[in-house]
Amino acid sequence: MIDDDLEALSREDLLAEVRRLRQGIRAHRDSTGQDLCWHHPRLWGLLPEKTDPLPVVPSWPQFLHG
What we know:
This protein is mainly α and 66 residues long. It has helices spanning 11-29, 41-44, 60-65.
């Protein structure tokens, strides 16, 4: 399973992980402008699996619309 690593963490390690994730979520929530773009590598970087998906940019009219 994808989150099996959590089973081996101590209570203190789990609390540290929750705090780290909350800090990342708050940093994103409180950002403005281009930092709120749909490409979120820093937010994705909070996950233990390391993947860097390339963003797919829609055509210009669709991009402007939404």
